Amino acid sequence: MSKDKVKKREMVFNGIPAAPGIAFGEAFVVNVEELPVFTDIIEEDEIEGEVGRLQDALTQTEKELSVLHETLGESMGEEHAKILDSHLMMIADEFMKKETIQLIKSEKLNAAFAFSRVIDKTLRTFDQMEDQYLKERAGDIRDVKRRVIRNLLGQKVEGLANLRKQAIVVAKNLTPCDTVGFNKKYVLAFVSDMGGSTSHAAIIARSMGIPAVVGVNEFSVKAKPYDQIIVDGITGQVVLNPTPKTVALYREAQVKFQEMERELLTLKDYPAVTLDGRKIELSANIEIDEEIDDVISHGAKGIGLFRTEYFFMTRGTLPGEEEQYRYYSNVLKRVAPDPVIIRTLDIGGDKIASWVDDSVETNPFMGWRGIRFTLSRKDIFRTQLRAIFRAAVHGEARIMFPMVSVVDEVRQAMTICREVKQDLKKERYQIGENVEIGIMIETPSAVAIADLLAKEVDFFSIGSNDLVQYALAVDRGNSRISYLYNPLHPSIIRLIRDTVQAAHQNGIWVGLCGEMVADARVRGTLLLIGVGLDEFSASAYLIPEIKQIIRSVTYDETRLLVKNALVLSTATEVQDMLDEYLRDKRPELMDFVPKGPV
Ligand code: PEP
Ligand code: MG
After folding, report:
1. More confident site: 244 or 72
2. Which residues are catalytic?
3. Do the beta carbons of residue 159 and residue 181 sit within 8 Å?
4. Ligand 1 centroid from CA 96, angstroms
């Protein structure tokens, strides 16, 4: 039997559903890991060949970077493509090349090892530099090193830049930056071995409407380039080499899913109000300005979380005040008269920017993150606040601080806001006067002192992604322990209930901008209505579904569900109780409970 007649066996994998939708396509396996390099002393007569290999690898890397530059320019705009300018400059650097060749010749080192030595020496020099800008270039150098070494070792694994036709991206892990750089024209879906449903790569896939499944153990090893794959981002199933029968079943499920999506979109202009008249503000989360069209077309009223860090992460240098002012103004104008909650920089955790001092932290999610970072880099904080207050004249801006754990942080941030406003007035800038300022409630400490925090600010927005992570002590990106990451856990419902009570007793409004509705879908949404939140914000693609659920129930019945949940002991008991209610009282909402065809 000839090789291509060998029929590949169908295999079904179960992962974590990360972004809804069903996709069919060929695997495009990418490798973003750094490869190990070993010393290899070469013979005299091998030197010439080794130098040639170095030259080829540099040329190949330059080609890849140019394609990536072009792709990024097409999908994200020229400004974002600039992030690669310094990579391209580095690869063309004659000095680096000469030094490597010198090492190959004098010490008879293999090209990969010699190149590593040269780059590592440069990196050490950069690490010792005082100049912040130059220090920030270290991340770019590491990236160039990884690419050149991969080419030198002849690893024919693909880089995302090489994706020039529609395919399903398969990777061990993806960073938020990889995902935000996806070209929607080509990426049909993605599957990763690692990650959780609230890791930022997953959140972005949701925002972009790209189906995704994460935490599929060793999938990137099992899937080979060009294998056929089905990705079911609703249930978390991934089928490798599906049989015609499985393809037919999923085609049916895809048609059903698309019909449901179309039908839900007809609710676009209807309010999010329960059958007994309780109105909930329904807004959307965005990472980059390109998502605004989706926010509007999916019927969200404003933006409940603008993750501004992506503007900072998708470029090689820090954006200045004018650039930020233009960016925020544009978002505010397009969304006006609806509000935009602009969250100040939430760098850290799994969100890394190349311009941040890249010293490795043992516990990045509990480290230099959110408001902790901005309070220690007041230059960056002030610049961002100046840009927001100035932009606020163009729409309904609100400001929100992330990762608050103590009152002092809020007081310090509020003082800086007052100073920034005064400075701007002195400098005769027009500014937004009545900008509401709020905080995210995403640490258990913030919940415990929510009554105190409520006295300092105008509103709360619960960040359930982090709240679940910190309350249950479960890394949101770790697929091994993802079974513990459950927003339906009684501890989470109690924390949310306490936050809502503290906010209302102190006369401020409270929303939720975490992915709880994406994660726990209809079950989570029912509890969030019943707990008395004033606002929900989620990925634009989920807005129609949430609206339909809100419009199908009474506030009273959801309050009763919360009351029942609060006396249960486990997440499974809460889920069973909610499922029984759905089956008995609202069977039409069972369509929103994910179930797959195989
Ligand atoms: C959250 O933690 O719930 C949140 C909305 O913030 P992020 O996902 O950006 O950490
Ligand atoms: Mg958070």
Report:
1. 244
2. 200, 513
3. no
4. 41
pLDDT confidence band for 158 (50 / 70 / 90): low
* Ligand 1 atom nearest residue 514's Cα: 3
Question: What pTM did the predictor assign?
Answer: 0.78
Query: How many residues belong to the chain?
Result: 598
CATH topology for the 3-32+159-260 domain: Glucose Oxidase; domain 1 (3.50.30)
- Residues 196 and 203: their CA atoms lie apart, in Å, by 10
Between CA 563 and CA 568 the distance in angstroms is 9
**Nearest C-alpha neighbor of 27 from the set 158, 153, 174:** 158
How far does residue 516's CA lie from ligand 2's centre (Å)?
12
Decide whether any atom of ligand 1 lies within 6 Å of the 100 Cβ: no
| 435-467 confidence digits (pLDDT tens) | 999 999 999 999 999 999 999 999 999 999 999
pLDDT on residue 314 = 72
CA torsion 577-583-588-589 (nearest 10°) is 20
Residue 92 neighbours by CB distance under 10 Å: 12
Distance CA 129, CA 123 (A): 10
Q: Which CATH superfamily is domain 44-153 in?
A: PtsI, HPr-binding domain (1.10.274.10)
**Topology of 266-592 in CATH?**
TIM Barrel (3.20.20)
Q: Which residue has the higher pLDDT, 6 or 302?
A: 302
d(CA 316, CA 355): 6
Compute how many other C-beta atoms are within 10 angstroms of the C-beta atom of residue 593. Answer: 15
What is the chain's percent helix, strand, coil content, to nearest 5? 55, 15, 30
Q: What is the mean pLDDT of the chain?
A: 89
- Confidence band of 5 (pLDDT split at 50, 70, 90): very low
**Residue 253: partners with Cβ closer than 8 Å, 6 or more residues away:** 22, 232, 596, 597
Distances (CA, A) of 262 to 249, 409, 546: 20, 45, 14
CB 220 within 8 A of CB 171: yes
Ligand 1 binding pocket includes 307 (Cβ within 6 Å):
yes
The pLDDT, as a whole number, for residue 33 is 56
Q: 302: Cβ below 6 Å to ligand 1?
A: no
Residue position matching structure tokens 């750089």: 181
- Cα 342 from Cα 412, distance rounded (Å): 18
DSSP states along 303-329: EEEEETHHHHHTSSS---HHHHHHHHH
Residue ranges per structural domain of the chain: 3-32+159-260, 44-153, 266-592
| Cβ of residue 466 lying under 6 Å from some atom of ligand 1 | yes
| CA-closest residue to ligand 1 atom 6 | 463
